[in-house]
Amino acid sequence: MSKIRMSHGAGGRAMQSLLRERVLPHLVSGFGEVPLSAMDDSGVIEGIVFTTDSHTVKPLFFPGGDIGSLSVAGTVNDVSVMGARPIALSLAMVVEEGMDVEDLERIATSVGATAKKAGVPIITGDTKVVERGAIDRLVINTSGIGMRSEELDHDLAIVGNHRPMASRWLEDRNVADGDAIIVSGSVGDHGVAILSAREGYGFEGDVRSDVAPLNGIIREALKAGGIAAMKDPTRGGLANALNEFAEKSHVGIEITEEAIPIKQAVRGACGMLGLDPLEIGNEGKAVMAVVPQMAEEVLAALRRTPEGKDAAIIGKASRAVRGVVMRTRVGGRRIIEPPVGDPVPRIC
Amino acid sequence: MSKIRMSHGAGGRAMQSLLRERVLPHLVSGFGEVPLSAMDDSGVIEGIVFTTDSHTVKPLFFPGGDIGSLSVAGTVNDVSVMGARPIALSLAMVVEEGMDVEDLERIATSVGATAKKAGVPIITGDTKVVERGAIDRLVINTSGIGMRSEELDHDLAIVGNHRPMASRWLEDRNVADGDAIIVSGSVGDHGVAILSAREGYGFEGDVRSDVAPLNGIIREALKAGGIAAMKDPTRGGLANALNEFAEKSHVGIEITEEAIPIKQAVRGACGMLGLDPLEIGNEGKAVMAVVPQMAEEVLAALRRTPEGKDAAIIGKASRAVRGVVMRTRVGGRRIIEPPVGDPVPRIC
Question: Do A28 and B100 touch (CB under 8 A)?
Fold first, then answer.
């Protein structure tokens, strides 16, 4: 009898095949304008964007955030990267008997502050308590709903008058040959911050999680126009996000190692631990595919925001390659695969 | 330092005060037409009904259902009892490493079958895996969205031309003096089935969970007209649901013990175990307050459905009493309090 392995939760290939082979066939997964079977950041039905995330991050508190800020930001971002304005969140907590009420209150404070910062209210909730040992302190699920952003310039067929599109939402399958690939800031910060806090590696002073709601900067980017697809590179990191673009859009992606913003401390920590920063999850970053004519304007719009000041064009979609290919610093070429396992489990 | 206790998850007074004192003040909880602070079955914002539930039921499989059917039915019901038509669900699973993939697949099958029965598609999802010991096999969160039911006859002020209403949704605060209290069928089945399956008491042959999506029968009841408020009596059972009506509507409720449908096997099991069937959770029942002129029509509409064949008028709202008062079989009067603790934990 086959058993669930940690890699089934890593957001990469093992999870995709478990879901595609053993779960999705039993669900009626084709409903909606963006259905479950698209396995995108959110689904869309009757004009409503809808997403869900359960958060099992360990530890609950980490440099730069906690499970509360993470839950709110993660869900706000999943709605926003579809090209939608988040309008409400839910908050469902499963709490272990014996948890300090003060810790729960501190997390509630963080939930409230992050929701306020994002300007998205929590309008429904649920609380369950399970006996000691039945859960590792606290699991939070946040779901979110949103409506199409007024700034999104897709209509059913055209993005910014530049080219036809497969979807009028910022779906992964919208990327086309020549699109610029932009990342909104440095990658790897969140996963390294979590790992360091959990294992006591001592990078905590240098590396903080990037956890942040991105609806504000995404709105600025949309105003510039020409965005075809967008994702937040959480589990599986940039490597997974770019491979999802490539697979679902049937187009290769070429990136340049030098162009990818990675903080020195994150690079150092990854080097020491043998981790690839491209596979490390982020919680306050967006990756987007932009029609080439608009790439500089989107980049400039992002860079005008505090969260997007390190945004960079890191490559482009290209029919000349298969999958995701990176030109390395030393002039070589490296194929970037979606991670199979999970380099850092329980980061979100 | 105070600690979370099992009673904090029981849906009764301990949970209400924990949330009101330590959680809600930190959230911006007043947004929406039905805000979080209403603590009703769902929230409502921009015309969208939105609800969430995390399911920690133990065992995962029980007579009459499993965590999959329970998750779907629970969320469909929370949307429906607001007077809304559920249009989509989310499905977020947190799975323990080592769980049998076959069990997960069996649960996915049940999720799919129940969603199909309810006619509500799952359009977004999330899967997390945690290491052995970090969770008790599986937690499922389902959230749901819905739109106002076309059958709901409230406008902003009037229910079925009978009287003014506080809310145009079927909120708990809409109950008024004289309203008939109707329950859609027998109470206590679910909690007793869970308890029996978990502890091996051997009632499994006689008692099955009532878990079922109620959007169909609620639609029939709404067509009859005159419904002011509705709840699904899950955790805390009928006792808690009626007390929420009474407290939020500032009106007493009088019920008659003889009129409450309780199956013989459930009554017997509760007697042996010292449990009050009114405090036991249900997963396929609705309690409603109906303007008196329409009570018989709503009852007849319910009784025409298989799920509602045992529906009964069990009492009425009355300014003559405070809280919830039951006339007992022997002619006495008993005050029905909301349960403080949880007679059967982890039933949902």
Answer: no
Phi, psi of B260 (to 5 degrees): -80, 120
* Residue B143 to residue A100, Cβ atoms within 8 A: no
Its sign, for the CA torsion B188, B151, B146, B91, is positive
Determine contact: A322 vs chain B, CB below 8 A: no
Bridge-based pairing of strands A180-183 and A287-290 is antiparallel
Give the Cα separation of A246 and A323 in Å (integer): 6
- Residue A156, pLDDT > 60, answer no
Bond preceding residue A59 cis, omega within 30 of 0: yes
Nearest CA in chain B to A118: B28
pTM of the model: 0.96
Residues present in chain B in total? 348
Phi-psi region of B284 (alpha: psi -120 to 50; beta: other; left: phi over 0): alpha
- Which 8-state DSSP code applies to residue B162? T
In sequence order, what DSSP letters do the residues of B228-252 get, joined into one string?
EEEE---TTHHHHHHHHHHHHHT-E
Q: Which residues of chain B have pLDDT under 50?
A: 156-157
Preceding amide of A86 cis, omega within 30: no
Contacts of A195 (CB under 8 A, 6+ apart): A201, A269, A273, A344, A347
Of B106, B268, B119, B112, whose CA–CA distance to B192 is shortest? Answer: B268
For the segment A164-170, the average pLDDT, to the nearest whole number, is 90
pLDDT band at residue A263, thresholds of 50, 70 and 90?
very high
pLDDT tens digits for range B221-242:
999 999 999 999 999 999 999 9
**By the CB < 8 Å criterion, does A34 face chain B?**
yes
Q: Render the burial of A236-266: b for 16+ CB within 10 Å, e for the rest.
A: bbbbbbbbbbbebbebbbbbbbeebbbbebb
**Which domains occur in chain B, in start order?**
8-147 (3.30.1330.10), 150-335 (3.90.650.10)
Distance CA B222, CA B302 (A): 10
In angstroms, the CA A126 to CA A93 distance is: 6
* Predicted pLDDT at A161: 65
Residues of chain B found within 8 Å of residue A130, distances taken between Cβ atoms: 9, 56, 136, 345-346
Query: How far out from the chain centre does Cα B264 lie?
Result: 22
Cβ proximity of B216 and B223 under 8 Å: no
Contact A70, A283 (CB under 8 A): yes
By Cβ distance, the residue of A35, A131, A136 closest to B6 is: A131
What value of ipTM does the predicted structure carry? 0.96
Partner B contacted by A112 (CB < 8 A): yes
pLDDT, tens digit, 9 for 90 and up, residues B40-83: 999 999 999 999 999 999 999 999 999 999 999 999 999 999 99
In chain B, % helix, strand, coil (3-state, to 5) comes to 35, 25, 40
Dist CA A107 CA A304 (whole Å): 31
Would you call B346 an interface residue with chain A, using a CB distance cutoff of 8 Å? yes
Counting DSSP H helices and E strands in chain B, the numbers are 8, 16
Of A338, A347, A329, nearest in space to A255 by CA: A329
Q: Which residues of B touch A37 (CB under 8 A)?
A: none
Q: Write out the two tokens for B250.
A: 């500032």
